[in-house]
């Protein structure tokens, strides 16, 4: 009887351990798909807020969000015609992002930046820097880089930057308590 009870307790302990190991981490995984100023601002505000709450944060930049991470003063080297054209048409870095609505040829974007400055709201550039200081991980979609003809040499200097495929994002999302698409 005592052996049966002891065996059942060990079995329950093993099941509990397996359940605990399968639980998602205190982690936020975010797909940043849009390169619009308001949406990228929201992504970094959420990311830095989550890090301040001691959550691990992993941002996956893909398609139209990828140009936001281009460094303004870096060149990507020699490119083919289509890659060069895309590079010219897409924003180069966070300072060239525009609002998704009410941009009005840049007037709306400038108004928002002015109001943010007056109200001491951190700029996108400042939020990116803060995210790096807090340890927010940024992964750039390698396929988006290839499609748009971007080179690693033209991306920003960021302490936790990597280039990955969608499988890495899916694995991170599977382990996370929170997943967002912005």
Automatic annotation (TrEMBL):
<protein>
    <submittedName>
        <fullName>Peroxiredoxin family protein</fullName>
    </submittedName>
</protein>
<dbReference type="InterPro" id="IPR032836">
    <property type="entry name" value="DsrE2-like"/>
</dbReference>
<dbReference type="InterPro" id="IPR027396">
    <property type="entry name" value="DsrEFH-like"/>
</dbReference>
<dbReference type="Pfam" id="PF13686">
    <property type="entry name" value="DrsE_2"/>
</dbReference>
């Amino acid at each position: 009887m005592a052996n049966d009870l002891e065996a059942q307790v060990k079995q329950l302990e093993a099941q509990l351990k397996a359940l605990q190991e399968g639980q998602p981490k205190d982690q936020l995984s975010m797909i940043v798909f849009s390169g619009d100023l308001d949406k990228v601002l929201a992504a970094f505000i959420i990311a830095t807020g989550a890090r301040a709450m001691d959550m691990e944060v992993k941002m996956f930049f893909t398609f139209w969000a990828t140009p936001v991470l281009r460094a303004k003063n870096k060149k990507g080297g020699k490119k083919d015609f289509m890659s060069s054209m895309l590079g010219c048409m897409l924003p180069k870095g966070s300072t060239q992002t525009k609002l998704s609505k009410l941009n009005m040829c840049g007037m709306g974007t400038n108004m928002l930046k002015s109001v943010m400055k007056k109200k001491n709201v951190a700029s996108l550039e400042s939020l990116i820097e803060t995210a790096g200081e807090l340890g927010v991980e940024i992964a750039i979609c390698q396929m988006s880089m290839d499609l748009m003809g971007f080179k690693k040499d033209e991306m920003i200097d960021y302490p936790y930057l990597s280039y990955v495929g969608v499988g890495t994002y899916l694995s991170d999302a599977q382990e996370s308590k929170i997943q967002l698409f912005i």
